[in-house]
């Protein structure tokens, strides 16, 4: 699908149209769609559990499974990422960071930064 612009004012409705040179074109006018264009992505949600080790998860929703968001953590550790399809158009991706809590970690924030296609970022700081 190709859109001529991606301004926040572009809300639709939109129609699919098939154009084949030297043939008839067809517009699917009965099946409309709308698109929400966000200037900045929604921030991720984060949860943290401390039971002998820290297990932090950072979760976002997105609509492009072929280009899932990338996660960056402010702390090192074991990182796992998984995606799940929620419905026909929406996915959720979660990054899980596991690390052993050290005394040097006290009073330090834990940051999760998410980079989407097009280099748009969103971040969350857990104190």
UniProtKB/TrEMBL annotation:
Origin superkingdom: Eukaryota
The protein, known as: Ig-like domain-containing protein
Native source organism of the sequence: Characodon lateralis
């Amino acid at each position: 699908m190709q859109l001529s612009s991606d301004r926040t004012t572009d809300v639709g409705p939109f129609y699919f149209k098939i154009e084949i040179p030297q043939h008839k074109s067809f517009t699917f006018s009965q099946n409309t769609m709308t698109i929400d264009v966000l200037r900045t992505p929604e921030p991720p949600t984060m949860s943290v559990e401390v039971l002998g080790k820290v297990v932090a998860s950072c979760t976002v929703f997105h609509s492009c499974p072929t280009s899932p968001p990338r996660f960056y953590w402010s702390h090192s550790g074991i990182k796992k990422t998984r995606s799940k399809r929620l419905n026909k158009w929406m996915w959720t991706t979660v990054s899980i960071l596991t690390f052993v809590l050290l005394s040097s970690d006290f009073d330090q924030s834990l940051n999760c930064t998410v980079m989407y296609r097009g280099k748009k970022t969103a971040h969350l700081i857990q104190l």
